[in-house]
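Intended use. Records like the one below are meant for learning the mapping from a protein sequence to its folded structure. Do not use them to infer anything beyond what is encoded.
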Amino acid sequence: MKTVLLTGSQGFIGSYISQELLSHNYRVIGIDNYSKYGRVKRKHDNHKNFLLIEHDLSKSFPDVNGDILIAGAAMIGGISYFHKYAYDLLATNERITANTFDYAIKKTMKVIAISSSMVFENATEWPTKEEHKCFPPYSTYGFQKLSLEYFCKGAYEQYGLDYTIVRPFNCVGTGEEPSGEIESVGNISMVLSHVVPDLIIRSLSLSKNDRLPILGDGNQIRHYTNGKDIATGIRLAMEKGRRTDYNISSKDATSVIALASMIWNKIHGNEPAFDHNAPFNYDVQLRSPDVTKAYDELGFEAKISLDESIDEVIQYIKEKNNELVNYNTIYKNK
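Structure written out for the chain above:
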């Protein structure tokens, strides 16, 4: 039984990765400081092969042994979060990255680096292949994720450290919790920063004849990928990946307006009318990956449809209504 060190194990994507690894006979040592959601409870917490070390990786890396290291810990949030914490996203995540790679070099431990689709913020070719060269991201979050990829390359060039880079695209699923801060989009207050649960909660808070607020014209294109599929892709990259990078994503493109219509129709049974709020600077209009490389080299293909993912998140939010969201007080026009 191999031991995987997983940083950010208690986060949104991290919890999916933990469950995926444990279900495939790995021992997992999670490292997290609960900085995003507070002391959340996760399905994997009491698994016999899971151990959590509570630790702030921006300060140091704990002295613990493993066979491979998945670097997933980072400050992360929604679009308004990129603006509000522009410096902290860069500085804190760089400290986490440096401490993580220092330890991996010391232990000669292969790193699976969880990057982001935001490195393609300024892509000019779609579907975007891994080797596409584009202008660096404007957002400090995207730039720091690009820096993470260069940490991999630099550590290999100087120390021979093995690595594989994975870029998840638009994770969808259950398990996102309130971060303790309310973000704002236009005249709408947000507790959850990812678009799918946010649109679900907005839709649940409104009547069928109300107008649904969205960012911009709604023509932004994304590839929404279930967290279980992303976790499978990361495990396969860990097991089969070369010293290269992989887009981990659904192959299906969906506009925000189509997504919002799907959600509204499931909840209210009619087509929505929209209020269009001004978009943020980093609201990229088209983010569409080429997934051929992950399929050919890893055997990865996203299996869970967006329709299934939406049903899953709607049910989760309804079940969490009392403790997660008070629709009538949080989601309202200012």
